[in-house]
Write a structure and sequence with these properties.
The chain has 430 residues and is an alpha/beta fold. It has a domain of 257 residues: Type I PLP-dependent aspartate aminotransferase-like (Major domain) (Aspartate Aminotransferase, domain 2), CATH 3.40.640. 38% of the residues lie in helices and 17% in strands. It contains 16 helices and 16 strands. A 7-stranded mixed sheet has the order 4-10-9-8-7-5-6, sandwiched between helices. Strands 11, 12, 13, 15 and 16 form a 5-stranded antiparallel sheet that branches. The chain has a 4-stranded mixed sheet with strand order 1-2-3-14. β15 and β16 form a beta hairpin. α8 runs parallel beside α10. It is globular, with a radius of gyration of 22 Å. 46% of the residues are buried. The chain binds pyridoxal-5'-phosphate. Pyridoxal-5'-phosphate binds next to α5.
Length: 430
């Protein structure tokens, strides 16, 4: 029987930890230390974390204010029944409702984005007494069975051994760069074509669930599209569930992405950084009206955990005091200018809304043919070797997803852009 060195964490990880997906080269990175936008693996290799720990550490890794708040809370109270509450939990609810669009008034805490979306779907069905839910093409709302029902990606849906429920349906969204016309107005017209008929053919629609700006591929629909969809759904009494799990808490250069469009959702869902990185915290906020008939049936055991809430509260305060929402907006512009300035033939589109978005890579800028899988893997590997932690996503799997902590500096972005320049040139020549 072979034994594993008790100090070889990477070997122990391979032996004991189950991961449904990782990139074949360089992953997983077992991180031993993290600070701000930088992380170090168990071998001491340094990385610039352009994933913010999977879009969570909005104020930066191990922010001292979060560490202090969490440390204090650990010595006061950790966990209480969902029937009761704790000071940080109540204060976090108050803070969120104060910052969120004025249409939501109360917060229900759970433990993850998928679960919080399921709570939202349940609330919408209970309130309207209707079963159907519309979701956006390319939308992502989580991988538990209920949230998968409204997640568009076939790859993920198939993982649940289709078919899922038949009552939910997708509605098209404008993808300006790949639309027939290539213009915002044309893309909006294409996406709206037939939409009213689609809604009319589903008279039992309780709600539309949507990210105001789609994180997968960084798709921000033109404002005209959101205005039209919002009008059409209101005329039919269809609720709007805004999934701000990823777009919330400053990511898009506004505290919530709904603000870009003046959207007033009936239900708003948050997660990811809501715990300041402590974990296991998500929220479903709803209007007083919708809350009235809401019956959860149960409350998630760890929903609203005191330590997670203290971490989240400290993170939100850091975001506000350090003006990180404004920094996200400015750094998104810097990313955009620096990426276009490379004039690289493989850069087809650059889409940043604050620090959500990315760079779409193509083999040919005229035809917009997606860059090949082999080249994309090499790009990722090359960036990884240079200490750049990124992920690749998008409808066609060709968007470098760049969502660092909101505290990133222009100098750190320039460091990434320099690595990208070397990478694209090297991979093209290989
Ligand atoms: C928009 C959106 N909704 C829901 C989820 C699911 O959240 P969780 O992974 O915490 O269940 C995610 C996670 O990436 C997300 O980006």
């Amino acid at each position: 029987m072979s034994s594993t060195d008790p100090d070889d964490i990477e070997a122990l990880d391979r032996k004991y930890v189950m991961r449904p997906w990782t990139h074949p080269k360089g992953e997983p990175v077992i991180i031993a230390k993290a600070k701000g936008c930088t992380v170090w693996d168990v071998n001491g290799k340094e990385y610039l974390d352009l994933t913010a720990g999977y879009f969570v550490n909005n104020a930066g890794h191990c922010h001292p204010r979060i560490a202090a708040a969490v440390t204090k809370q650990v010595n006061e109270v950790l966990q209480v029944s969902g029937k009761h509450g704790t000071i940080p939990m109540v204060k976090l609810a108050q803070k969120l409702i104060g910052l969120a669009p004025k249409s939501v008034h109360k917060a229900f805490f759970s433990t993850g984005g998928s679960e919080a979306n399921e709570v939202a779907l349940k609330m919408a069905r209970q309130y309207t007494k209707k079963p159907d839910i519309a979701y956006l093409a390319n939308g992502y709302h989580g991988l538990t069975l209920g949230s998968l029902e409204v997640t568009a990606s076939e790859k993920y849906r198939e993982s649940a051994a289709k078919p899922l429920g038949k009552d939910n349906y997708a509605i098209p969204i404008p993808y300006v760069y790949r639309s027939k016309s290539g213009t915002p107005a044309g893309a909006v017209a294409e996406a709206l074509d037939g939409l009213e008929r689609l809604f009319d053919s589903h008279p039992n629609t309780a709600a539309i669930i949507a990210e105001p700006i789609q994180a997968v591929g960084g798709l921000a629909p033109p404002a005209e599209w959101w205005a039209a969809v919002d009008k059409i759904r209101k005329e039919r009494g269809i609720l709007l569930i805004a999934d701000e799990v990823q777009t919330g808490l400053g990511r898009t250069g506004k505290m919530f992405a709904c603000e870009h469009y003046g959207l007033l959702p009936d239900i708003l869902v948050g997660g990811k950084g809501l715990s300041g990185g402590v974990g296991s915290l998500a929220v479903t906020c709803a209007s007083d009206e919708i809350v009235k008939p809401f019956f959860g049936g149960t409350t998630p055991t760890s929903g609203g955990n005191a330590v997670s809430a203290a971490g989240g509260l400290a993170m939100i305060e850091a975001i506000i005091d350090e003006r990180l929402v404004e920094n996200a907006a400015a750094m998104g512009r810097h990313f955009t200018e620096a990426a276009w300035a490379l004039k690289d033939p493989w850069i087809g589109d650059v889409r940043f809304i604050g620090l959500l978005g990315g760079i779409e890579l193509v083999a040919d800028r005229n035809s917009k043919a997606v860059l090949g899988k082999t080249e994309l893997a090499k790009v990722k590997d090359h960036l990884h070797d240079q200490g750049m932690l990124i992920t690749i996503s998008g409808l066609h799997g060709n968007v470098l997803r760049l969502q660092p902590p909101l505290s990133i500096t222009a100098a750190q972005i320039d460091q990434f852009i320099a690595a990208l320049k070397t990478t694209l040139t090297a991979v093209r020549g290989s």
